Amino acid sequence: MLAVRGLSSGYDKVTVINGIDFTVGAGQWVSIVGNNGAGKTTLLKTILGLLPAASGTVGFEGQDITRWAPNRRIRAGMAFVPQGQQSFGQMTVAENLHVVADHYGREAQSRYDEAIATFPVLKEFRDRRAGLLSGGQRQQLSIARALITRPKLMVLDEPTEGIQPNIVTDIQRAIRRMSEDQGIGVILVEQKVKFAVERADRYYVLAAGRFIDSGDGGPDAVATATDRMRV
């Protein structure tokens, strides 16, 4: 589905990521872990077209999309959940979801229902303003909004930042269901290794803009990935 080959990018003349290679298949959860300043967000922005690639390629569904604009990538099946639990604070949960769902005409209700089913708490709070939700509930809302587009690839940037532990677990389970049950490819970048690695299919450790380690995900991989982040 996604094939990143020799990807480098940065800001002005400063290279932040250099020579990145990895793939994501349909229904595969790939996590990229690294400390602050490792280049995680820069990598995501380059994959999404928010930053231009200095070199290398981004392939998606068999097409070279390296020079595609971000909106074209979204239409092709990418969805992005940025850091920070973004939503329209003065609108209700239902209104936040319908803003996206209503673009799909006859499918609007079914897409809305699918999103609510992923995070049942949103149904309970559907009439509450998004600005009154907890950070974890707002993050669930952000992911649900992205799911309405029925993406082929979901890209999540630090989804656990500032979120209470019980909701972190709910989000982890939801991401696993997305990949297993809906066949959505997932790229997740995180500092919290346990969350990112223990249920992922594959992980990469990013440091100073390069991958320094990789392996199959799972509970047994958490300690190894954690140790590599300390290097």
From TrEMBL:
Work out whether the entry's keyword set contains Metal-binding. no
- What family classification does the UniProt entry report for this protein? Belongs to the ABC transporter superfamily.
Q: Which PROSITE patterns match?
A: ABC_TRANSPORTER_2
Keyword ATP-binding in annotation: yes
Q: Which domain of life is it from?
A: Bacteria
Q: Which UniProt keywords apply?
A: Amino-acid transport, ATP-binding, Nucleotide-binding, Transport
- The name of this protein is ATP-binding cassette domain-containing protein
Every copy of the ABC transporter domain together lies at 2-231
Q: Which InterPro entries match?
A: AAA+_ATPase, ABC_transporter-like_ATP-bd, BCAA_Transport_ATP-bd_LivF, P-loop_NTPase
Q: Which organism is it from?
A: Bifidobacterium pullorum subsp. saeculare
Instruction: Name a biological process GO annotation.
Output: L-amino acid transport
Q: Which Pfam family is one of this chain's hits?
A: ABC_tran
What Gene Ontology molecular-function terms does this entry list? ATP binding; ATP hydrolysis activity; branched-chain amino acid transmembrane transporter activity
